[in-house]
Amino acid sequence: MYRKTDRNQLMLEEFNMPFGGKLDAENRWVKMAKLMPWEMIEDMYAEKFKSERPDGRPAYPARIAFGAIFIKEYENLTDERTVENIAENPYMQYFLGLHEFRTEPLFDPSLMVYFRKRIPAEDITKVNEELYRRMKAAKKEDDDKNDKNSGSDTSDGDNGENEKPSVGESSKNEGVIKVDATCAPSDIRYPQDLSLLNECRENTEKIIAYIWAKAGLLQGHMTDYSRKKAHKAYMKIAKQRKPRHDKMRKAIGEQLEYLRKNQHKIAELLCITGWDILSERQIQRLDVIGRIYEQQKEMYDNRTNKCEDRIISVRQPFVRVMVRGKAGKKYEFGQKLEFSVVDGFTFIERQEWDPYNESTGLIDCIERYHARTGVYPKAVQVDQIYRTKENRAFCKKHGIRISGIPLGRPKKDEIEAHKERAYKDSCERNEVESKNGISKRRYGLDLIMAYLDETAKTEAALNVLAMNMAHCLRRLLRAYQYICALLEYGFVLICSSEIF
């Protein structure tokens, strides 16, 4: 059950401080509280609750749930440290919508997982779009006010001939979009076939011991082999720095045989006890182990290292190998993200676990830009992999200039111009590369700690939202500094009371 709260923004003077004083209006959390679209967030959050029983326990407000996971990503904290920081910081509590400062923790850190489950990555994307829309609207309002103050507004006899067309009516291309792909690595051990099979063997041994205890069996052996010898055989190869290929293959074959025997033993025990004795999590784990065994057996028999939808982690079976070819990182293991940067604002255009060719999503990215702004961009700045014939044809059809040297034999007087334009595009495109680096070094996109499929995607989307929120704060600061400079040098054409 969910009960909607008062949507009116709490005034700074109304926030009760037990030790006296009042909050600073220039604090970043106070400003972010004004920028965040809380009404939209609460409407999306309330839809996740189907129960309307009046006697049910009310869920935590959307502002607390969303605000907590946002604080975690903005400050790059763990769940436990997030709860601690909220209990210590009155500005964070104001951001969460509280009316007074509380020293005790608001909730248990384990609830952060459920908050991320109830706020999927799709909802984060909608919040990101709304934040961009509000930023553009505020910028347009400021530009109109500056034009009016500078005396450049249209006269009364203009008859509207110079009015700007509304969104969706303009055919003129505007703006530049920069696109690039990156990988958000997950928190998994570096995958190796031998260690993966050993982990599967240990998991099946624990499940056998669990069923054995529940069934009350007192005679016989739990496994058809010596668990001590199986572990010793694995450690003998795992401790070697560079084991020989024949020894590694022999060790993999042994682990496969141990795993086969365990699967057979579990099937025998479940015929006696029934499947009801296992929890849902144990059943899912057995299903994952069964798929890993089939894949590893197929690769072992065919003497290959490739198979379709290869599982590289028992705990996170959805994680796939991303062949990146970067310096020091030939492979990465996590979700693949496609970023687009418009006016310094970052959007996630594509987010998948399976590897894909980034060039296939450029047209959809441009169409989303058109739906967002009402016009197609003037230029698209991308790297070589995006410059396919299909993408070039689409850009030519809609009057969009794609970065890079055009195809065909250029005229002699155009060669230098094309090279200069391509170099300039390459330099300007560094902005999207910097966004990738900032999201990883500052906001934690370099290592996603969430273990579930949906929560890992939510965490990655929140990283981008936190980066965009910081961008909005910087724009506000620049606007404030610009007004202060005008006031200092006497170039303001209107009185200060109209500005503030």
Annotation keywords:
500 residues, alpha/beta, Nucleotidyltransferase, domain 5, 17 helices, 52% helix, flat, disordered C terminus
Describe the structure.
The protein is an alpha/beta fold and 500 residues long. It folds into three domains: 12-119, no CATH class; 176-186 and 319-464, Ribonuclease H-like superfamily/Ribonuclease H (Nucleotidyltransferase, domain 5); 193-302, no CATH class. It has helices at 28-35, 38-46, 62-75, 79-88, 90-95, 111-118, 121-149, 193-215, 227-238, 245-273, 280-302, 362-373, 389-397, 415-428, 430-441, 453-489, 496-499, and strands at 176-185, 321-326, 329-342, 345-352, 379-381, 401-402. Strands 1, 2, 3, 4, 5 and 6 form a six-stranded mixed beta sheet that branches. Helix 3 packs across helix 16 and helix 8 (193-215) runs parallel beside helix 10.
